[in-house]
Specification:
By secondary structure, the protein is of the alpha/beta class. The protein has one domain: 3-Layer(aba) Sandwich (Rossmann fold). The protein has nine helices and twelve strands. Helix 3 links the parallel strand 3 and strand 4.
Length: 297
Amino acid sequence: MRLLVTGRDGQVAASLLEAGQARAGVEVVAIGRPELHLARPASIIDAIAAAKPDIVVSAAAYTAVDQAEDEPDLAFAVNAAGAGKVAEAAARLGLPVIHLSTDYVFDGTKADAYVETDPPAPLGVYGASKLAGELAVAAANPRHLILRTAWVYSPFGRNFVKTMLRLAADRDEISVVADQWGNPTSALDIADAILHAATMLHRDKDLAAFGTYHLAGTGDINWSGFARHILDTSLKSGGPWARVRDIATMDYPTKARRPANSRLSSAKFAATFGWNAPDWRESAGEVVRRVVSGETR
């Protein structure tokens, strides 16, 4: 099985490339700019066709949440039109597409974890562009899996785990928001889940499992609690540590509003594909230890 993942430098792409190396019968290739540029649709079909994949993983995205408020046209060009063109290219080649989306399609006002049937209501440009991307993907390719995830971190690229460790190396105390809740999700786990689902799709061409799913870490926490776990694990691993001070969202103003509740129920994905994410503490511990030991990039 040959998987093509868009977004060569992204956390999920890097995690898929690593995971693919450890699995017999699986080859993962990644493409990005300049060969594939989501804001330039003409490049998409040729780049995907040249890779000759069995399944396309649409992971490339515009992810600068605050900057998107100033660049809505670019955010929609990449996250909506570009994602739709990737799905269309896959459909023209007779391939299924696995597309990554986000908790930011919701406004965070629900008291419980969001399920797939809850109505989206994005708070900002980024979430709106990702929701538009979901609709474009579904319209372009009926053989789609749309996977909404949240609070993604990994040993690769830029993310909350690496930011906390970097700040802890320079200061004694870090102020972290305590009134936003969600499911920390390791990109390593996302990659494992994608490979699991892709294998099922590859083996059974008539598998009636297409649609939208939530895919997030097991268990929830607020940002400050997540930070404490990261830094306590770092200390035990010989890495940096700092005190965490709880603050409110209003004390840390950002250009784009964030959902207060980003919790996602992954029960539908677990029931359909027989895959459950590990407890978030376990997955976060693995990533922290890798970053502290220098096993990252």
